[in-house]
Each structure stands twice: as structure tokens, then as C-alpha cells.
Amino acid sequence: MDTFTDEQLRYRIALAGVKGMNRLLAETLIKATGDVSTFFTLSGSELAGLTGWSSRLFLDVERGNALRAAVREVEFVRRHGITPLFITDAEYPRRLAECSDAPLMLYYKGHLPLEYDRVVSIVGTRRATAYGKSFVDALVRGLAAASDSTLIVSGLAYGIDVAAHRAALQYGLPTVGVLAHGLHTLYPSTHRQTAVEMLERGGLLTEYTSGQDVRRPYFLARNRIVAGMADAVVVVESGEKGGSLVTASIAESYSRDVFALPGRAGDTLSAGCNNLIKHNKAALITSADDLLEAMCWTTPASPTPRQMPLLTTDETLSADEQRLLQYLRDNGEGQINRMAVELDCPAATLSALLVELEFKGLVTAFPGGMYRPAVS
Question: Cα(first)–Cα(last) distance of the chain, in Å?
């Protein structure tokens, strides 16, 4: 894995965090200056001279803000065992890197590699029916039977997304959830246990830094990652409008293969899929065999070595994590607002620590902001 000093990582995170920065601009700047750090060390006039154009990006205030935010992010990444991936890193998802609008930075919590012989993204409505969930289960089961070197990608949302992740876990396939927020939290919180299990065989991926909470535009933006990481995108139940159709459209623009599960005429949650098939935007799929045949995956792929999950001990915890865990063990449980007062710890910081301890399987969340030590 490519490793960077804290300073090198800070410059990469800062570059991605400059307002208005995108991949094309970043690559142009790196080519002109020769190095990521140079963008921050040269003056605005020097940058204008090198690139031949002027931009608000060159303002000291914009670059300074990005650098200050990056200092905090480097600390968060190091403290929580997150893998930062820059667009040029060897571990950056290869298929996604082929896309012109791929994020400059990704943040990954889980086990590498992110590269598998076959990558299938499964998306669909949050209001999934038994029909849709049953198909997802059968699809993933069939893909697992064909090859254990198939990665299942989705967005960890309600309905079809979480059904895909849970099916992958059940049938022994790696699975990655693409989040629409930073790794300091988890949405929806009801999927925490699934997320914890995913860390042992796959993980959680996002382009957002810590402190970036859920926002509606982030859901649409993350769809390009779900589409770009995949060889094939399967849409399982969708209304006439919705994020799944956006993902399918993006996948088509990336020259990815798109499949859709047909439904009965008049079924609201099959209208989107039926329209994709009707307008030749997606191939009809009724089983894993349909996908395997269309993708020419009938010959078994080479298995990818499985990695054993890392064991977490108290010795591997930070001082803040140990203090919080000891509080919960001493008291049996704790309510987040009360703990914030008694531990003299900001609620936002406490929330991030609790999420981290959940990921490590050491605490369990309950309704009402209650947390208890996990039963060993």
C-alpha cells in the first residue's frame, strides 16, 4: 500500500478539499507544478504564471482553509485506522479511477483489497417488497456459487441496498457500502450491526471527511462511486423516479453493463425497472445465470485470498476509547448526552468514539442514544 507522511497526506486531503476543485483541475495543476504540495507553497501569482490562467482556487484564503481542515482530517484518519486513498494510489479502485469525475480522495474503513475479479453494484428502492428482497438473496447466492472473488457494492440504505449487503455476508462474499457522509457517523443508524459485520469482510467507503454529515446532494453524488466501481449495475425495484435510476444512468455513461429486474405492469415499484428495459437502458435479469452469461463470467474466476479479521484488544485502543469503554463497563450502560457531561467530552467527539467502538465490536447501540458494552 502507498504510504505517506502526515505532511504528504495533509497536502492530498487539502487539494481535494479546496472549494471548486475537481479531478481535471487537480491533474492540470499537478502536471503544471510537478507536485501536490507545490500548489500550496507557491504564491497565487506564481501559480498563475505556471498554469497560464487565474482562478479563485489560487487565493491564499481558499488554500489556507483547506490546509487547516486537512490537519484535523489527518489526525482523524490516523486515530481511527482509516485508509486514505488518493486518485493515483495503487489501492484506489481501478474501475472508479477510469471515470473522469472520480473523487480525488476516498476514505476506507475495512479490509483491503478493494480490487476483485468481478464487481457488482446492486441498487434499488428503500421500500423494497418481498419480491425484490427475495431476488437479491437469490442473485447474490448465485454469484457466490459461481465465484468467491465477486465484490458486492451498494449504499447501505434501507431496502434493497442493505438486503444486498446482508446477502453478501450470508453467502461469504466481500461487500462495500458507499456512504453519503464522513466516517465519524453512520446513517441509517439502524444498520450499525450490518456495518460492523461488513468491516470483517469488506468495509465502508466515502469521499467525505469527518464532520461532513448527511445531506441530500451527497446521496446523488455517491451514486457515481457505486456505478464507477462496478463491472455491472443491477437495479432491483424502482419507481419512475429515484436514485437507483440516476445510478443506472451514470453507469451507462461509464459504459458499465446495466441490468434490471422486471415487474408486473402497474406495479409502482417496478415502473422504473420496466422503463429501463423498455427503452433498452438495461438488460432484463431474472437470475444470477442471466448476469453470469451476459458478462461472460461462466468460467470460474481465480479466488481471492480471504483475509482474517483483525482482533481488537484494549491495548489497541486510544486513551479516549479506553476511558469511554471503561465508563460503560463500570456503569453497565450510558446515554450519550449524560456521558458527554460526566466525561466532559463534546457530544460530536463522543459520537465518533462510540461509532469507532461499535465498529470494533466493543459496544452496542440501543434506542434513545443508549450504549452498552458488547457481550463477549
Answer: 33
